[in-house]
Amino acid sequence: MRVAVTGAGGRLGRALVAALEEAPFTGPFGPIAWSRREFDLDAPDVVTALLARDRPEVVVHAAAWTDVDGCARDPELAMRRNGAATGVLAEACAAAGLDLIVISTNEVFDGQRRDGRGYGPDDEPNAINPYGASKLEGERRAREAYARGLGGALGIVRTAWLFGPPGNDFPSKILAAAERAGSAGERLRVVGDETGSPTYTHDLAEAIAELIGDGDVSGTHHVVNWGHATRADWARELFRQAGVAVEIEEVPASTWPRASTPPAWAVLEPTPLPSGEPVRPWPQALADYLPTLLRQRTAASRS
User: What are the pLDDT digits (tens) for 154-206?
Assistant: First the structure.
């Protein structure tokens, strides 16, 4: 099976390419990696030529403008990149009868839920920031393209709070902040009123590969590591595993004003995978990631 991945140079794209290289159904040549050079969100019309050249049977659309504050500062650009470009891709894939998986986000929901449950696929989206609105528009346009019944199946995979190589994620940033706080003899202030589903890109990529291998990608899937945490909870678990001694002071998100307003409750209810096995708890995934993260930090400090 020929599988193409957009955004192949990004955090999730890299993990997807690696997972699909190990998947038996992609054959000896592995997946087709479309980096920004091949598929640019600012020039999505090139996809028709790409499909004709590479002839994939499935496309995983991982490319996105994920700078949530940048999206808030330029909502029109966010709509073009995350909404309109996804629509162009979906139209081309549907017309060619290909399966398409669109990666989306928990930020299509407003985060106002108070019952302690994660958002499920049947819950009504209500984005409260331009990033979430642009991703929701991408979902809408993709569904519209496939509703015409030209061929192929559409899958929407929503996820949340991604972490993983190459760094510059929450774990790497909070470790750096802890080092600075420790050197200054200060407590580390960490947000305590945002709760989400920390998700390891490796695990998400493996789950997407499982969906493709099952032969039916259709529907809306919520794929996150099991469990949820506040930012402060996440930091504490990271420091425990890394053996970092720093005192945490929980503060509200309003401590650091931002261009974007993130959902306070960013928790997704996982949907079953074909195997029936849940994605493992996020602390276990964090433990797998930690050696890579620490090696990257050591290398960076020596350079």
Answer: 999 999 999 999 989 999 999 999 999 988 989 999 999 999 999 999 999 99
Q: Which helix (H) or strand (E) holds 32?
A: strand 32-34
Separation between Cα atoms, residue 280 and residue 283, nearest integer Å = 9
Q: What is the Cα–Cα distance from 180 to 11, expressed in whole angstroms?
A: 26
The residue to which tokens 């192949």 are assigned: 8
User: Rounded distance, CA 225 to CA 190, Å?
Assistant: 22
What distance in Å separates the CA atoms of residue 262 and residue 131, rounded to the nearest whole number?
9
Domain interval for residue 188: 166-195+227-265+281-302
- Residue 248: give its domain's CATH number: 3.90.25.10
The CATH code of the domain that includes 71 is 3.40.50.720
According to DSSP, the residues that pair with 249 across neighbouring strands are 189
Domain co-membership, 13 together with 146: yes
Alpha carbon distance 250, 211 (integer Å): 38
CB 58 within 8 A of CB 100: yes
Active site residues: 131
Q: What is the pTM of this model?
A: 0.96
Which residue type sits at 154? L
pLDDT, tens digit, for every residue of 112-121?
999 999 999 9
Q: Is the peptide bond before 166 cis (omega within 30 degrees of 0)?
A: yes
66 lies in the same domain as 175: no
